[in-house]
Amino acid sequence: MFDAIYGFLRGAVGFSLLVAGGTILLSHPKERGLRAFAALYLACGALFTMSALDPLARLPLDLDNLLFQTLIFVLGWSLLEMALYLFGNERHRGSRRRLVAAGLAYEAALVLLPLLDYVLKLEPAIRNVEDGLARGPIHAAAAVAAYAWPIAATAVSLAIARWQPGDLSGGRPESRRFLAALAGVGVFLAAILVFLALSLRVPYRVGHLLLEIILVALYFYVVKNPRVLTKLRTEIGKEHERRLVLGDEEAADIARKLESLVRSMEFIGDEKLDLRSLAARIGVPAYRLSSYFGSRLATTFPAWRNKQRIAYVKRRMTERPDLTILEISVEAGYTSKATFNTQFSRSEGMSPSEFRRKLANGLEKVHAAE
User: Fold this and answer.
1) pLDDT, tens digit, 9 for 90 and up, residues 57-103
2) Could you count the other beta carbons within 10 Å of the beta carbon of residue 90?
3) Cα–Cα distances in Å, from 284 out to 136, 258, 272?
4) How far apart are CA 223 and CA 232, in angstroms?
5) CB within 8 A of 98, min separation 6: which ones?
6) Which of 109, 135, 204, 219 could form a disulfide with 195 if both were Cys (CB 3.0 to 4.6 A apart)?
């Protein structure tokens, strides 16, 4: 009885999600956020419908796996597209493309790896909790591993986005609830992965039913509020900008910490020094330090770092005329002689050798005057 009800609900909801996704896509073809939202519904709807129809028209296992992995890829792609849309796109150009390529390669591997069951002559011994069919161990593992892609895609998208989850503190309560429901999709996908791996049939089915409920509820909310994704993106962006504004007291504190660090020059020789490690040294969040450089100093971290290194090189040339320019540049953290020469010339208007000669001539004149 439970199997029949479960199968009916899967088919009914699956078909409904397909219609919902198609409706959204046709109604809002130019809105990126809603296109990704529609892709999520089309992928989930196709997966649910395929599962419901399986007892009536069962595909060969390898073809079934190909279709399953393809739909899971689209599911993960839709989640990463929504995450990047809501959080201001990728922070570094090309990272989205690399993430999609990695997901495509991962799912392609999960399509091909099960063929090893035939090559290695592994008997189908592991029954899938979804359809009850026995699969080879590699095929069974691929079915479980597939769910890792949409979960990883969402997490990595948030990591590479311009704005961060911390920017969610602003905005309207209903917007945050909508986003929490979207996050619930990822949570239930993670739960389904665990239940599938442990072959827990009842929790696995309950997880799917709860996922279906969330998707249906989200659809009706979007139909009622078709601009919800655009508004949420705007709210997150505004909160991000607000959080970047530094108060005078905070800016003065960062300035004092930087001055203390510059006086000690402890960071100069660190070849791997970046914004995050510098922020950790002075005990402030990296995004606040970046804001300080931009809003208070009208510069960037790389430009600030180079300025400090050039100042160190000039000081060392005065203090240690016995050291070669190359030795001093290495002390300052430069790993390339060409890069050092270019940066020094750009900063001082002359090459390091010219600067040293000018410095030596100046010292000679001082000594002669004495």
Assistant:
1) 778 888 999 999 999 999 999 999 999 999 999 988 899 999 999 99
2) 18
3) 52, 11, 19
4) 15
5) none
6) 204
CB atoms within 10 A of CB 157: 23
Token couple for 222: 């979007």
What are the residue ranges of helices labelled H in the chain? 2-27, 32-53, 61-86, 95-112, 116-119, 137-145, 148-160, 173-197, 201-224, 228-244, 248-264, 275-282, 286-295, 301-319, 325-331, 337-348, 352-369
Chain segment 313-367, per-residue pLDDT in tens: 988 888 888 889 899 888 888 888 898 999 999 988 999 899 888 877 765 444 4
What tokens appear for 33 in the block?
Answer: 């956020």
Question: What domains lie within the chain, and their CATH numbers?
Answer: 2-241 (1.20.1070), 257-369 (1.10.10.60)
CA nearest to 135, candidates 150, 154, 116: 116
**Token reading at 292:** 């300080």
- In this structure, the strands spanning 134-135 and 126-127 are antiparallel
Rg (CA), the chain: 29
Closest CA to 133 of 65, 198, 87: 65
Distance of CA 215 to the CA centre of its chain: 23
Residue with tokens 């659809």: 219
Q: What's the CA angle centered on 350, arms 349 and 355, to 5 degrees?
A: 125
Question: CB atoms < 10 A from the CB of 125, how many?
Answer: 10
Q: How many residues does the chain have?
A: 370
CA distances from 63 to 18, 44, 59, 69, 192 (A): 21, 18, 6, 10, 22
CA dist list (Å): 182 to 27, 41, 158, 327: 21, 12, 13, 55
Q: Can you state the angle between helices 248-264 and 286-295, rounded to 10 degrees?
A: 100
